[in-house]
Structure formats: structure tokens, C-alpha cells
Amino acid sequence: MKLENIKLTNNLQSLQHDYENLKQEGVENSEAYEELLIRQKQELVAANIELTLKDREYGIIEISERVVKQLCDQSQRDKQKVLEELHKMHIRMDDAEQQANAAVTKLKKERWHRAESEKKHQELMNQMKEYTVEQGRVIKNWKRSFAQLASLANEAIKDVPKLLADAESALPIFNPPEKVETFLNYCKKLIREMKNVMAEAHDS
Q1: Region 21-48: what's the mean pLDDT?
Q2: What local confidence, expressed as pLDDT, does residue 204 receive?
Q3: What start-end ranges are recorded for coiled-coil regions in this protein (predicted)?
Q4: pLDDT at 52 over 80
């Protein structure tokens, strides 16, 4: 466009030069002179109009360039802002991922501890069940043994007093052997204690 302006300026100067030459030569034909003058004026006006349009075009181009530059600068700022927001978002996402991983790890540990607790609880329940069954067998055996012992004791309580009485009647009235008498007294005491034990067991 600058080259075109230079060209138009050169043409304008050339026309002015021609005009001056014509004036100096003193053209006798006034009509031709007037026609040439009008044509030159028209060309001058057209050249001025074209120059004005070119100047306006240059102004529009300059304004457009400024607008484009402003838009580019704004776009660059917006891009930088978006990149910063994306960076912050990535940081938040990383933090959230770390928190989620920590929560999952904690949950796994809690599940493992709960499974271990349930396992130990089940083992304890099994041991208690086995202990209860074993104690049931012991109690059953103890009851059977006690029943047998009680049966023997009942028979002894029934038979021993009569045997003691027969043994005492067979002893001499005066001066019975001391050891025999001690044994008989011990047997009587034992019978009394057995009767008391049987009575307490019966009451319970």
C-alpha cells in the first residue's frame, strides 16, 4: 500500500508539472486548455479521493491490527488463566485421590481387624462350646460316680449300724480291747457324717 501511495504522489506531481509546462508554453487553444485543465482537476480530485480512501484504509488496518493484538493478548491471558485453573484442579484431584486411597487403605485395615476379631471370637466360641461339652461330660461322669457312691453310702448306712451293734454285743462287757472300741467309735462317727452329707445332697 505504501508503494501505491508513492505511485499516486508521483502521478500527482507529474500532473502538476505538466500543468505548469502548459501554462508556460501559453497554449493558444483556450478550449483545449480548459478541457485539459478540467481533466487535470478531475484527476487531481480523484487522486485526492483515492489518497483519502487509502489513508482511511490504512487507519482501518491499523485499528484492526490493534484490535487483533488486543484480542491476542486477551486470548493469551485467558489461556494462562485456564492453565492455572487446570493446574489447581489437578492439585485438587491429586489431593482427593490421595485422600480416597488413604480412606480405602484405612477401610481395608478395619475390615482386616474386624475379620481377625470375628475369627478370634469364633475360635473362642468354639473353645467355649468344647469346654461346655467337656464339662457336661465331666458333670455327667461326676453325677454317675456320685450316684454310685451315694448308693454304696446308702447301703453302708443301712448295713453298718447293724454290724456295729452286733460287733459291740460280741465284745466283753468289761474291759473291751481299746483299739476295737476306738475303731467302733470311728465307724459310728463316719456313719453320722455320711448321713449328714446324704441329707444335704438330697436337700440341694
Answers
A1: 66
A2: 61
A3: 79-134
A4: no
Closest CA to 15 of 37, 35, 40, 36: 40
Q: What is the pLDDT of residues 72-98, one digit of tens each?
A: 788 888 888 888 888 888 888 888 889
Q: Residue 6: which of 36, 41, 50 has the closest Cα?
A: 50
Please enumerate in sequence order all residues whose Cβ is within 8 A of that of 51, keeping only pairs 6 or more positions apart, or say none. Answer: 5, 8, 9
Rounded Cα distance, 64 and 66, in Å: 5
Using H for helix, E for strand and C for coil, what is the string for the chain?
CHHHHHHHHHHHHHHHHHHHHHHHHCCCCHHHHHHHHHHHHHHHHHHHHHHHHHHHHHHHHHHHHHHHHHHHHHHHHHHHHHHHHHHHHHHHHHHHHHHHHHHHHHHHHHHHHHHHHHHHHHHHHHHHHHHHHHHHHHHHHHHHHHHHHHHHHHHHHHHHHHHHHHHHHHCCCCCCCHHHHHHHHHHHHHHHHHHHHHHHHHHC
Amino acid identity of 143? K
Type of residue numbered 1: M
